[in-house]
Amino acid sequence: MSIARYFQDLSDLFGKPHEPVGIVAANDPFHMVITYLRSLINREDLLDPFVKEYDKSLTLNEKERIIAYVRLYASFEDVIVHNKPPVVKSEYTKASLRDDVAAHVAVDKLPLLVRLFFLKEPARRTTLCFVVLFYISEFVSSNLGAETCKRYIAELVKGSVFEKIIIPNSQPNSVFLQLDESLFTVNEQESRFLWLRIFLGLFEKVRASLGDRLVKQHFEQAYEMVKQTNDYQIISELFEVFPKDITEKDRLQYLSREELEKKVIEATREEKDKRAIIEKLAHDLQEKVGDLHSSNMNILAYEKALEEAKANVERQVTERTKQLLESQERLFKFLETIPIGVFVFDRRGGPYYVNATLKRLIGNDMRDLVNLLPIKRAYQGESSSARDIEIDRGEKRIQLEIFASPIFDSSNTVEFVIAAFHDLKVWSTTYIRRVYAS
């Protein structure tokens, strides 16, 4: 299937002439989405900001309106999935809400950037990458010519299934990119490899012609177009295929809870491995001392060998200790930068590490945290979470969501418990604030 059928018209992404508000509202597929989402929220005070933003979006030109639609849907979604009946009619996850909307509204009629919310993998990744490539190709074509841009991309996809994105025998200086639905069946590993080759290769080719500053500027603009209008699940698809100079600065703030736990567990295991090496060196030293005692070496030779062995072990212990401290320092610096409160408890329930975000969130008095249910369950070897937990801090009551997981030692005993905290009130209003800030 060609892009003409699947995308309707590329002008729904890059803009049309301004139309009167009445005509836009009457012909607007997104109006049906808004109507359905409004029916899922029971509180009028929560609906008022969304209604005003939608009315405002109808006065914008096509490109600005579509970006406003994406932000508006994300804000609606955030409110619905972070509330329960009777505030909303039913309890949803993001995935179940998107499936429900798709079952009641013709989402295939929506503008492409809005439609990304409802596509499934691998169609979403392929579509997202194609949109970004199209945006970048417009910049390259305007600076180096459409034929040069076409040649660059054709060289990068030559011999692969992605040769289909080039329109054969396209007219000079006309649109030459297309997307065939057969590309949605390419396996995930191959698809990511090919998009990585396309973006990195195009980045280097254009940099050689236009210079580092200009190519970075326009790749960043393409990334920002997606970043400012989508959630983590969509944005994260670009992390694996886009130049790291463009995306690396944003990776920390978009870390999921699972990625955070994985990084902490990996660092903890690295620390345990280094401890094991030090213990083995000490054991080897004891064996060498035993061997020396049983030999016929004279006392001078024995003392010299012992001093050399001790010096060697001390040198290796010093090096390993330095590496361990550096690794621990990198881990703690990493945890200080994330926007989620993190508390690591030791095997006795005492504090092993607390990041600055958690201190700002609930203050310095954390003695009662170890008694929270998710943390107690983690000491029993279970990962769990809890919402709507309230912590009293004098005149202030903080409503938290907590995730806690155990970290086991080599004997399968809980050695640490890691807990992540975030303020539900701040979390649930993030997207509304983005709308007003924009």
Task: Report on this structure.
Strand 3 and strand 4 form a beta hairpin. Helix 10 (146-157) runs antiparallel to helix 11. This protein has helices at 3-6, 11-14, 21-27, 29-39, 44-57, 62-81, 94-104, 112-115, 123-144, 146-157, 188-210, 212-227, 232-239, 244-251, 257-294, 299-337, 356-362, 373-379, 424-428, 430-437; strands spanning 341-345, 351-354, 384-393, 396-408, 414-423. The radius of gyration is 28 Å and the shape is flat. The chain contains 20 helices and five strands. It folds into four domains: 3-118; 123-248, no CATH class; 255-338; 339-438, Beta-Lactamase (2-Layer Sandwich), CATH 3.30.450. The protein is α+β, with helices and mostly antiparallel strands and 438 residues long. Residues 1-24 and 431-436 have low confidence and may be disordered. A five-stranded antiparallel beta sheet has the order 2-1-5-4-3, with helices on both faces.
